Amino acid sequence: MTYQIVLAPSSARQLRKFDPDIRRRIQAVLELLAENPRPPAATQLVGGAGEWRVRTGDYRVI
């Protein structure tokens, strides 16, 4: 089952500002999250409402 990733307009603007290499890495993680929303490398945030994070280099996708 494939999920749909929807970015807020502010998130899409921020993504466009990244260096092309970093942008490609983040987009690759987003595509993987569409296939598996909780990959083995994901960590659930403490004190949140069920949010998860995935690290990609120095960045985190929440």
* Cα Rg: 12 Å
| Coarse shape | globular
End-to-end Cα distance:
20 Å
Total strand count, please? 3
Return the structural class: alpha+beta
Show unreliable segments: none
Summed up, the domain count is 1
Order of helices and strands: HHEEE
Mean pLDDT: 91
Fraction of helical residues = 40-55%
User: How is the largest sheet built, in terms of strand order?
Assistant: 1-2-3
Task: Outline the structure in words.
- The chain has a 3-stranded antiparallel beta sheet, with helices on one face.
- It is globular.
- The chain starts with 8 loop residues before the first helix and ends with a strand.
- It is built from 2 helices and 3 strands.
- The chain has 62 residues and is of the alpha+beta class.
- It has one domain.
Short description:
With 62 residues, the protein is of the alpha+beta class. The chain is 40% helix and 16% strand.
